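W.,

You were right to be curious about this one. When I first looked at the sequence I had no strong expectations either way, so I just let the prediction run and decided to look at it fresh. Below is the sequence, 97 residues in total, followed by the output.
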Amino acid sequence: MLSLEELESGSRVTHKNTGLRYTISDLGEEEVLLSPEKDDFEDLLMPIALFQQEFVSGDRYSAPRSRGRGRGRRSGGAPGAGRMPTGPKARGRIKKM
């Protein structure tokens, strides 16, 4: 979980699931305002508890790389472009189908 003591306005954070990078614009008592590095996206306002679970400080997080067949081969996309995961990750067991 991300510690708020190490963060201040202007700090950079990375979203764990998507790898998108943001800069903290304002750090309030209950909410955090994030500005994306890409101009295509809008600012993001979120509760502190969710922010602490979903983000890591700085650029130290890198998205997991895919393994298995096709390793070393490039798809027809742009160089360095990879699939971005969508939605939250969940763990658990299926009880009934």
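Here's what jumped out at me. The longest strand covers residues 21-27. And, maybe more interesting for your project: Residues 29 and 48 are 8 Å apart (CA to CA).

Coffee later to discuss?

I.
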